[in-house]
């Protein structure tokens, strides 16, 4: 697709696609509020305490987490020029997981019920800073960090932190702590409250707005570093700001939901198939679809084996992994055909 084709395609397909994604989100949100061990009629959604105190905050967290992870994935795939990049590529999820696991295993409680979310958030940000300290060694001479270097450093740190998690889990003093670690690592939205919503909503909403505002920079990065610089973009600064936004979104999501995978991989690819790569439409649509994806997965987790509740992250992986495998094989086939 040429640069002149993008606006024309957006005028035709973007409003319809974004509108459809918004309708899907509203329907998924309403149905998720209604269904459960206790079915609540649509007319009673605003007054039933099961909805207002239990389901609503959980579903809002699911929507925020899905939107944050989807947009983070789209940003990282563009900045790294890597279609397989996702929010874990720079170690954000692993850093959050290590801090949370250590807090669980050691029994830390310096912030009460907020100890684990706070630890996860701090661990994610520290890991991102460490990745940049290592990968940005080239920045000392003004050249900035190579995206491939960032990916490799992130993968190495993720592997190292995974070993730390395994060691901490193996030495958990009590079985109850081991169970808590397992649930957190697989992503769980059980017992989310309005306080969790209060923690997540401002960073994620602000991060989403700023990310969508950076659509022009992302579109220029798609054209290549040389073309982007010729167009007046400070590539190094733009890359740093965009990755910082992705880190903020992912760290906040992981802090309130645990580790949920595949959202940042699958959703951006699905949206690109329909809209193409223009981030003016890609990012808002990915946010809406990501929110719906996690809400639907969470509803399935609550309902499929009721009264047994699966973890949301497990259901997301069950749904996301075959979709991603299909997309990967389809991309390889298209390349083999020269399409």
From TrEMBL:
Alphabetized Gene3D superfamilies for the sequence: ABC transporter involved in vitamin B12 uptake, BtuC
Record-stated family: Belongs to the binding-protein-dependent transport system permease family. FecCD subfamily.
Compartments it resides in: Cell membrane
Main localisation: membrane
Name of the protein: ABC transporter permease
Cellular component terms (Gene Ontology): plasma membrane
Molecular function terms from GO: transmembrane transporter activity
UniProtKB keywords: Cell membrane, Membrane, Transmembrane, Transmembrane helix, Transport
SUPFAM superfamilies, per database record: ABC transporter involved in vitamin B12 uptake, BtuC
């Amino acid at each position: 697709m040429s640069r002149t084709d993008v606006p024309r395609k957006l005028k035709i397909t973007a409003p319809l696609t974004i509108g459809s994604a918004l309708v899907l989100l509203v329907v998924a949100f309403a149905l998720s509020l209604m269904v459960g061990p206790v079915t609540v009629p649509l007319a009673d959604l605003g007054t039933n305490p099961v909805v207002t105190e239990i389901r609503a905050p959980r579903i809002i967290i699911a929507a925020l987490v899905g939107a944050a992870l989807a947009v983070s994935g789209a940003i990282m795939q563009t900045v790294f020029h890597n279609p397989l990049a996702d929010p874990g590529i720079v170690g954000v999820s692993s850093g959050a997981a290590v801090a949370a696991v250590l807090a669980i295993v050691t029994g830390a409680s310096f912030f009460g019920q907020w100890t684990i979310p706070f630890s996860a958030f701090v661990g994610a940000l520290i890991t991102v800073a460490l990745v940049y300290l290592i990968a940005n060694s080239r920045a000392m001479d003004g050249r900035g960090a190579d995206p491939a270097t960032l990916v490799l450093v992130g993968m190495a740190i993720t592997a190292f932190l995974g070993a730390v998690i395994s060691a901490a889990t193996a030495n958990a003093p009590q079985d109850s702590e081991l169970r808590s670690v397992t649930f957190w690592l697989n992503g769980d939205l059980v017992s989310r409250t309005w306080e969790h919503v209060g923690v997540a909503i401002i960073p994620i909403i602000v991060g989403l707005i700023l990310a969508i505002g950076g659509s022009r920079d992302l579109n220029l990065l798609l054209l290549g570093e040389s073309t982007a610089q010729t167009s007046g973009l400070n590539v190094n600064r733009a890359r740093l700001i965009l990755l910082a936004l992705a880190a903020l979104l992912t760290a906040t999501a992981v802090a309130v939901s645990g580790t949920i995978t595949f959202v940042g991989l699958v959703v951006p690819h699905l949206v690109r198939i329909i809209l193409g790569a223009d981030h003016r439409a890609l990012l808002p649509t990915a946010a809406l679809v990501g929110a719906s994806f996690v809400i639907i997965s969470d509803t399935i987790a609550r309902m499929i084996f009721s009264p047994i509740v699966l973890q949301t992250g497990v259901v997301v992986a069950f749904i996301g992994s075959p979709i991603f495998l299909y997309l990967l094989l389809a991309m390889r086939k298209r390349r083999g055909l020269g399409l």
